[in-house]
Design goal:
Length: 324
């Protein structure tokens, strides 16, 4: 059941949450954190679905802030839902109109779960420096997604310039399975690695981050080459007697190859927003490795022109660039 509050105040919204919890016999004790989503009207629906699914693993109070600037008077409309068939903890949609749309932090602050961590997620365009944003200052973790930008690589460069401890980007989170498979492929004895090449769809921000991580870990040159995608399609670790490679051209199954050994297959599907947000909510401490890899982007060569991959313009338009 949901409660709709029109032209209301943050205090009235907080009271409505308490009344709904009391009516259902629940409490805020089980809420492990507050997840604040700052989104436009066009993107908030998908973000709510992802957050509600993640809340099954991490019971949370989800505050969806939807600024709607305009010339009208300041107004706050809210929808409060506690419990529900989705299994989410508490979901509050806040639509701030007029001048109030520029004061999101003031509306959100009274609604945070007391003494619980705060995570902020911008599923669309984030502020230039998330840690200096009024809402970002309230949070231990700040989640962005460079792949959601019209110019992902430029957005990734902005994340590098404005990085602060506690920042993370879903372009990095998408690489977790890739990093695990690459690390597993090096468990067995192998010849010294002399270089690395990564096949990645053009304008995919996960490619440079993966290259920075491999350069940091292995201390060898890393080259990026353009492919048709989707996302990251292959990683080849060059040795004197052949490549140790992980390739995933179909976006579902990866093939692991080593010199002198039969090929193996492993599941490596493209990740859903639900899985990405759930992973980020598992850790609330700063991701130091991400920060180091972000700082190392200046040592990564950009993806060469698409003709190096032998692709036409129609090929470059064939798939999304976001997931990895």
């Amino acid at each position: 059941m949901s409660v709709r509050l029109d032209d209301t105040t943050a205090g009235a919204v907080a009271l409505a949450i308490d009344q709904e919890r009391f009516r259902q016999g629940s409490s805020a004790v089980g809420r492990v954190l507050t997840l604040v989503i700052v989104a436009e009207e066009s993107s908030q629906s998908d973000a709510v679905v992802a957050a509600a699914t993640a809340a099954r693993e991490h019971p949370s109070r989800i505050l969806v802030a939807i600024p709607r600037p305009g010339r009208g008077p300041a107004r706050l409309d809210a929808v409060v839902a506690v419990g529900g068939s989705e299994g989410l903890g508490e979901l509050v949609e806040l639509r701030m109109r007029g001048p109030l749309s520029h004061h999101v932090a003031s509306v959100v602050l009274p609604l945070l779960v007391p003494d619980a961590p705060v995570v902020v997620w911008w599923p669309g365009t984030p502020p230039a420096v998330p840690s200096e944003d009024p809402v970002g200052r309230l949070a231990q973790r700040r989640i962005t997604d460079a792949a959601a930008s019209a110019r992902p690589l430029k957005e990734l460069a902005a994340r590098q310039e404005g990085y602060a401890a506690g920042d993370t980007d879903l372009s990095w989170t998408r690489l977790t399975p890739w990093r695990s498979l690459i690390a597993a492929s090096l468990d067995l004895p192998h010849d010294p690695i002399t270089g690395v090449s990564i096949g990645v769809q053009r304008a995919n921000p996960s490619g440079p981050l993966l290259a920075s991580w491999l350069h940091r870990c292995l201390g060898v040159p890393v080259a990026l080459r353009a492919t048709r995608g989707p996302g990251v399609t292959s990683v080849a670790l060059h040795t004197e007697h052949g490549d140790i490679s992980v390739s995933r051209p179909d976006g579902r199954v990866a093939r692991l190859s080593r010199p002198g050994m039969p090929d193996r297959e492993a599941a490596l599907p493209r990740r859903s927003p639900e899985g990405l947000i759930a992973e980020e909510m598992r850790r609330l401490d700063p991701d130091e490795i991400y920060g180091e890899c972000l700082a190392g982007l200046t040592e990564v060569e950009p993806v060469p022109p698409a003709r190096a991959a032998g692709g036409s313009g129609s090929r470059r338009r064939s798939t999304r660039k976001g997931s990895s």
